[in-house]
Amino acid sequence: MHIPFDNSYAALPDAFYTALSPTAVKAPQMLAVNADLAQLLGIEIGDLTQAAQVFAGNVVPDGAAPLAQLYAGHQFGNWNPQLGDGRAILLGEVLGRDGIRRDIQLKGSGPTPYSRGGDGRAWLGPVLREYVVSEAMHALGIPTTRALAAAKTGEAIWRDTGAMPGAVLTRVARSHLRVGTFQVFAHRGQIEDLKTLTAYAIQRHYPQAGGPMGLLRAVCAAQADLIARWMSVGFIHGVMNTDNASIAGETIDYGPCAFMDAFDAGRVFSSIDRQGRYAYGNQPNIAVWNMAQLATALLQQMENKDAAVKEATDVIHAMPDQIATAWQKHFAAKIGITHVTARDTTLIDGLLELMQADGADFTNSFRALPGENARDQFTDRTAFDAWSARWQARIASEPDPAATMNAANPALVPRNHRIEQMIQAAVSGDMTPFDRLMQALATPFTAKDPDLARPPAPSEIVPATFCGT
Ligand code: AMP
Ligand code: MG
Q1: Out of 290, 320, 357, 365, which could bridge 245 as a Cys pair, Cβ 3.0 to 4.6 Å?
Q2: Helix, strand, coil abundance in the chain, percent, nearest 5
Q3: 243 catalytic, yes or no?
């Protein structure tokens, strides 16, 4: 296998990482390879037996500079001074055929100095969950890390549920720089390293940014749009800790995440999120909170502190409106409106209130809107008809509302019960449900698979997703 590495992170100061190879496993075996992504990255996969050696971490490919990255972070609001890649190894970077630099990282590849007592491993369930959901997210047009490969290790690992088959995910990201990467240097008072990191992030992601304040503005803008996009597909991230907030503005770290079935703004999926900090409807607030932490870290390097604090505060205070604007744009498209006005927000809110009251299916209700049977998604049909009359009057002036809606409302999202079923099948060696999901989710706006589009039957409902990854 050939990977055309072009590494930059490994050239940063020693304080940024620990150079380290993945830990070899017993019996590498490929589970899945993403041929399209490999093509984009200019990677020749070649023989699958040999590829499995690389993707399971047994062979370090030529040109790689393997390392574990250092970072810190706020987890559920609590400061943790040191996290870091506890079970991931960055192999290096590749310049894609599109000219974009991307990290190639193994996740589940063995312990590192940042493992904090963890085993450094991942089991097949979360690996395939991240594979399917991140690729689905990409197909939905939402910025995200991607999945290049998944390999079985041939080793059992222990989780709450007992012995589970081990696996390694090969994750591809525009970078793995997080808010927590800035926090670790700021907190330790390593100002030179903080400046180096700031310059690196600007050069790599936002060359127009000019300096720390410009970087803050750029990351806020990227995060604002990202969170609005999540909301628009009913996505709940589940662990919006600052170590899981990407500087590049990608969705990263698919742990206890889920797409909602029945709409509920207060919906929480993560089994450990008892206070609902990362509930669906609280995601905009948390994005702002995370950006405030980034601002705090970036400020440590500023010369004229008072002026800088004032400017950064303004940037953070502007963010709720920034998210609201992005939210309005994305949700207006979902009801067929291309040029959103202030009054349209009332219309969108009105529909969401109906959906909330009825527990209507988020994906299917929006998808059904342009059709004859939209009202069938609702139990209170009189209320829907009243809303619909106002809505029809509004979209009468839109050039092609149905086309707008069909491009904004996916027919398919990776529903949690389907993911669970896929994982159970994969554990017993059957990858057919995985292949079926991957194929259907590659074209989420046109896919026709009524069975995959169906909300869970009561017996299929997955009440929570677990962090035991
Ligand atoms: P996450 O919740 O996946 O974002 O992980 C938070 C932190 O815990 C990161 O520093 C991870 O590297 C670390 N971590 C998670 N699972 C493991 C594990 N099985 N072994 C070692 N470190 C882990
Ligand atoms: Mg993480």
Answers
A1: 290
A2: 45, 15, 40
A3: yes
SS3 223: helix
CA separation for the pair 91, 148 (Å, rounded):
13
Q: Is residue 114 within 8 Å of residue 82, measured between CB atoms?
A: yes
Compute CA distances 84 → 65, 116, 166, 248, whole Å. Answer: 17, 9, 21, 18
Q: Is the CB of residue 130 below 6 angstroms from any atom belonging to ligand 1?
A: no
Tell me the residue type at 217: R
Per-residue model confidence as pLDDT tens digits over 220-272: 999 999 999 999 999 999 999 999 999 999 999 998 999 999 999 999 988 88
Q: What would the two tokens of residue 5 be?
A: 């590495």
pLDDT, tens digit (0-9, with 9 covering 90-100), for 8-45: 999 999 999 999 999 999 999 999 999 999 999 999 99
Pair of tokens at residue 1:
């296998």
Q: Is 465 in the pocket of ligand 1 (CB under 6 A)?
A: no
Instruction: From 188, 182, 280, select the one nearest 234 (Cα to Cα).
Output: 280
Kindly give, in sequence order, each residue whose CB lies less than 8 Å from that of residue 255, ignoring residues fewer than 6 positions away.
Answer: 126, 238, 239, 270, 465, 467, 469
- Angle between helix axes 191-205 and 212-232 (nearest 10 degrees) is 60
Q: Is 118 in the pocket of ligand 1 (CB under 6 A)?
A: yes
How do beta strands 162-173 and 122-123 pair? Answer: antiparallel
CA atoms of 4 and 2, how far apart (whole Å): 6
Amino acid at 133: V
The closest alpha carbon to 416, from 361, 359, 366, belongs to 361
Interval 400-428: pLDDT, tens: 999 999 999 999 999 999 999 999 999 99
Q: Pick the catalytic residue: 103, 243, 261, 273?
A: 243
Coil vs helix vs strand at 460: helix
In a 13 Å sphere around the CA of 37, the CA atoms on its Cβ side amount to: 22
Q: How far apart are the first and last CA of the chain?
A: 29
> In whole angstroms, what is the distance from residue 384 CA to residue 214 CA?
45
Measured CA to CA, the distance from residue 79 to residue 208 in angstroms comes to 31
SS3 12: coil
Give the mutation target among 83, 130, 171, 184 for probing the ligand 1 site: most ligand atoms within 8 A of CB: 83
Tokens describing residue 463:
């009440």
Angle, vertex CA 138, rays to CA 137 and CA 143, nearest 5 = 90
